[in-house]
Design a protein that fits this description.
The complex is a heterodimer of chains A (340) and B (120). Among the domains of chain A are: 127 residues, Probable tRNA modification gtpase trme, domain 1 (Gyrase A, domain 2), CATH 3.30.1360; 70 residues, Elongation Factor Tu (Ef-tu), domain 3. Chain A is globular, with a radius of gyration of 20 Å. With 340 residues, chain A is α+β, with helices and mostly antiparallel strands. Chain A is 21% helix and 34% strand. A six-stranded mixed beta sheet of chain A has the order 10-11-12-9-3-13, sandwiched between helices. In chain A, strands 14-17-16-15-18-19 form a six-stranded antiparallel barrel. The relative contact order of chain A is 0.15. Chain B contains four helices and nine strands, in the order E-E-E-H-E-E-E-E-E-H-H-E-H. In chain B, the strands form two sheets. A six-stranded antiparallel beta sheet of chain B has the order 1-2-3-9-8-5. Chain B has a three-stranded antiparallel beta sheet with strand order 4-6-7, with no helix packed on it. Chain B is globular, with a radius of gyration of 13 Å. The relative contact order of chain B is 0.26. Classes of the chains: A alpha+beta (340), B alpha+beta (120). The interface between A and B is medium-sized, with 16 and 15 residues.
Chain lengths: 340, 120
């Protein structure tokens, strides 16, 4: 087995007694003080995450037409200061990866899932898109939480929501994956330790991937490998809002067919009034529709188990029954997001 | 005073005459992450050694605590219903799970020292 990759903060994480986990070939902090505490730091004040394992590629602005062809969202016609969440789709309309683009005047920064960095690079190569891989020379720190903007504005000028900015030290955007306001900051490895120490001196708490997962789930955000895979399209994952591409794009025909026929799988949010968590792989049934849980955990804010389940057909009922270790537990499918 | 003993399945128990108290080890709670729900048995329920008696749902995973010997439940720690985090904060103290009457004595658990080398 090849050795795990580490970020430049690895020793720093260990010095803070972080529990480390292997994630997509990286040794990353799972938690420092506990997942629920870290979850609440972000919901109630501010936390930061080392997400340097995520792939970071610089793309040439001159190839924006070609890049636009590979994703389901409109990238070329949005302002040059925008951040865009989108999905690389295959010919069959399924998700190759969900990513963030940071758009600038001269270039674009593409941030992809750590587990998909190689796949995305191969996909770009196959489509003659040039890129400069910045993953090994930079770090990525997400500062998230309701107090995060007030704190970070002492360190950088704050762009509008879903917008990008850049100064001599930081390339960043007002984005995140927790459901809270905040920024994601790419910076040179040599500056990272100083940056997070400054954050900590201002009261921003370190948070691990455990709370990142409970936060994104509670915020109804999909995670690649669970809600989105090589077998699941954006339509099936309930991400129709990402289908903004006004031009021809890879997989458009398959996606349009799904939109018209409505004959596809359906990802649904659920909650349980029980003390059992319906975890990944749990089977469930709603009316005649069979499903499988893609992610499940507690919602710390709601105080009950929540999750996503993927159904073979569109469930006609909002009652759902989960088979949790042989016990049938009833839950509800939800049309609205977990958090209002 | 009887010694706290440990099982390979990461429970601890402590004998008290004809009864014992059981919970999960500090190592186990650390591996589980934040405990969010605990499903306790009913007083009077009978269990054989190795039967699951308590179900613990945590942010990372789910786990069960098993009966260290044949027993009948005499008391459950109902504080865990509202404060499951007691198991994280004080696993071998306030985070105890159940007390039970011994039906068939089996004091074959490991000493703390043996358990420490078992988990290391």
């Amino acid at each position: 087995m090849s050795e795990l990759k580490t970020t430049s903060l690895y020793e720093f994480h260990l010095s803070k007694n972080s529990k480390m986990i292997d994630f997509a070939g990286w040794s990353m902090p799972f938690s420092y003080e506990g997942t629920l505490k870290e979850h609440n730091y972000v919901r109630e004040s501010s936390g930061y995450f080392d997400v340097s394992h995520m792939g970071r590629l610089r793309l040439n602005y001159s190839q924006i037409e070609e890049i636009n062809y590979l994703i389901c969202s409109e990238l070329k016609d949005i302002d040059n200061t925008k951040a865009l969440y989108s999905i690389f789709t295959s010919e069959s309309g399924t998700a190759i990866d969900d990513v963030i683009f940071w758009k600038f005047e001269d270039d674009l920064i593409l941030i992809c899932n750590a587990s998909n960095t190689t796949k995305i690079k191969n996909h770009l190569d196959a489509n003659s898109i040039n890129y400069d891989d910045l993953t090994n020379d930079t770090d990525l720190i997400a500062v998230q939480g309701k107090d995060s903007i007030a704190i970070i504005e002492e360190m950088m000028s704050i762009p509008n929501k879903f917008s990008t900015s850049r100064d001599s030290k930081f390339t960043y955007a007002r984005t995140g994956y927790t459901g809270e306001d905040g920024v994601e900051v790419m910076l040179d490895k040599k500056d990272t330790l100083d940056f997070v120490q400054q954050l900590e001196s201002k009261g921003v708490k370190p948070c691990g991937l455990g709370s990142r997962d409970t936060l994104r789930l509670e915020a109804s955000l999909p995670l690649y490998g669970f809600e989105l895979t090589d077998d699941i399209s954006p339509v099936e994952a309930g991400l129709k809002w990402t289908l903004t591409n006004k031009s021809e794009y890879m997989g458009k025909e398959a996606i349009d067919n799904q939109l018209n026929s409505k004959d596809h799988k359906y990802l649904k949010r659920f909650s349980l009034n029980a003390k059992q968590i319906a975890r990944t792989g749990t089977t469930c049934k709603s009316g005649d529709s069979i499903g499988i849980v893609t992610s499940g955990n507690i919602s710390p804010i709601l105080g009950k188990p929540i999750g996503f389940a993927l159904f073979e057909t569109n469930p006609s009922d909002n009652l759902v029954e989960f088979d949790i270790r042989g016990n049938l537990i009833e839950g509800n499918l939800l049309d609205k997001r977990f958090l209002s | 005073m009887p010694e706290t003993k440990y099982l390979e399945t990461h429970e601890w128990y402590i004998l008290d005459g004809e009864s014992f108290t059981v919970g999960i080890s500090d190592y186990a709670q650390g591996e589980l992450g934040d405990i969010v729900f605990v499903t306790l048995p009913e007083v009077g329920q009978e269990f054989s050694k190795g039967d699951p008696i308590v179900e613990v749902e945590a942010t990372k995973t789910v786990a069960e605590a098993y009966a260290p010997m044949n027993c009948v439940i005499t008391e459950v720690n109902s504080n865990l219903e509202t404060e499951p985090e007691l198991i994280n904060n004080d696993p071998v103290g306030d985070g105890w799970m159940v007390k039970a009457e011994i039906k068939e004595m089996d004091d074959s658990g490991m000493t703390y020292q043996q358990y420490e080398s078992f988990i290391s």
